[in-house]
């Protein structure tokens, strides 16, 4: 199913909240999006069908310690309303989000996600680039995609997400 993907607009906020709530079965991610969407350098995109938000994806800046001179975004969260899952909406959100990150000057994107899903978009294990996640997640679930070839060459360190992720 092809759906338009665009930047989130103020009138989308309630539907984005509902989409995250329905996709995750709780309000944790929805509240996190409400907190993060207005931060500088964040990218919030929606997929719509007949004018209704059916999917959402958020990217926020992350840092690497020790300090690295490269802009990296974290993909989290991504949600699709249950009745539209497994229809390709998530893939369209990921591809549009990666394009928008590239357009805004990010060199790479990290994600904590399903290791059988994200590699189809070019994500690979972050540890192969010397990167570790600050959170205790399975090694294979922490992945990275270089938007600029060799952007992470010679780099290593711990990826730190916004403090709001730990607060939730």
List the helices and strands and how they pair.
Elements (H helix, E strand, L loop, with lengths): L4 E3 L5 H12 L3 H9 L6 E7 L2 E14 L6 E9 L8 H15 L4 E5 L11 E2 L5 E3 L8 E5 L10 E4 L2 H5 L1
Parallel strand pairs: 4-5, 7-9
Antiparallel strand pairs: 1-2, 2-3, 3-4, 3-9, 5-8, 6-8
Helix pairs in contact: 1-2
Q: What would CATH call the homologous superfamily? A: Gcn5-related N-acetyltransferase (GNAT)
Strand content: 25-35%
* C-alpha end-to-end distance: 33 Å
CATH class: Alpha Beta
Approximately how much helix is present in the residues?
10-25%
Average per-residue pLDDT, rounded, comes to 95
Q: In this structure, how is the largest beta sheet organized?
A: 9 strands, mixed
Report the radius of gyration as a whole number of Å.
15 Å
Structure annotation, total helices: 4
Outline type: globular
The secondary structure category is alpha+beta
| Low-confidence region ranges | none
Summarize the structure.
The protein is 24% helix and 31% strand. With 168 residues, the protein is of the alpha+beta class.
What does this entry look like structurally?
The protein has 168 residues and is of the alpha+beta class. It has a single domain (5-167), classed as 3-Layer(aba) Sandwich (Aminopeptidase). Helices cover 24% and strands 31% of the residues. The chain contains four helices and nine strands, in the order E-H-H-E-E-E-H-E-E-E-E-E-H. It has helices at residues 13-24, 28-36, 89-103, 163-167; strands spanning 5-7, 43-49, 52-65, 72-80, 108-112, 124-125, 131-133, 142-146, 157-160. Strands 1, 2, 3, 4, 5, 6, 7, 8 and 9 form a nine-stranded mixed β-sheet that branches. Helix 1 (13-24) packs antiparallel against helix 2. It is globular. The relative contact order is 0.17.
